[in-house]
Amino acid sequence: MGIVEEAHNVKVLGSGEKAIILGHGFGTDQSVWKHLVPHLVDEYRVVLYDNMGAGPTNPDYFDFERYSSLEGYAYDLLAILEELQLHSCIFVGHSLSSMTGAIASILRPDLFDKLIMISASPRFINTDDYYGGFEKEDIDQLCNAIEENYKSWITGFAPLVVGGDMDSVAVQEFSRTLFNMRPDIALSVFRTIFTFDLRHFLSRVTVPCHIIQSTKDLAIPVTVSEYLHRNLGGKSVVEVIPTEGHLPQLSAPDITVPVILRHIRNDIADE
């Protein structure tokens, strides 16, 4: 195993010719794909990895400057592909990783057959001409809450994001992976995600993009998926699914997994 693979806990499952890379979002790790992976391994070569800063990674490797923008995560993704000697893949990214995949595809479009974006947003903060779902003051308050009492913040944040109460298995799972992050790293990643503005990148994304969005997602209004569709530089398609929450692959796998599989197997039709 190479240095990059070891640092990101890379796992390669299955032996199909086509490679599928699974990238997780904030507060989770590669375990968030546990409902999807069994449906892929017989047909594809499946690559799982942890973003730097996720609970299972070594916190000593987390470079606060490198990961103050999504380019750091995009370079990590490209390094993983290089170390595994993968020359093409389908990239399935959730939340943070959906936009990481977009940036990586701008840098190396030849490596990506398509991007499947789940709960994706190029910007979370509202502007005069854009509705991302949050005011800057909302983000400041959330950051302050993380700083003051991380564990207490999780008990309030996890049910809101997942869409359920603390008795929900999905909420408990998200809470577990959030707890596994070091609080100062969680704050840094949270701040990076909720203050980035990647709208100016979108026209440079030429790889086909399949956008999957929950009907009700506290973090991302449905209008954001439509904004992505209008502004991406290549072919794109949006599917809004009848789920609630920001992690539908974890909270509603019976609905979400078949949709992801369909988008993996079917390309966007030529108009």
UniProtKB/TrEMBL annotation:
Question: Does this UniProt record's set of keywords contain Hydrolase?
Answer: yes
What top-level branch of life does the organism fall under?
A: Eukaryota
Q: Which UniProt keywords apply?
A: Hydrolase
Q: Which GO terms describe its molecular function?
A: hydrolase activity
Q: Which SUPFAM superfamilies match?
A: alpha/beta-Hydrolases
Q: Which family does it belong to?
A: Belongs to the AB hydrolase superfamily.
Descriptive protein name: AB hydrolase-1 domain-containing protein
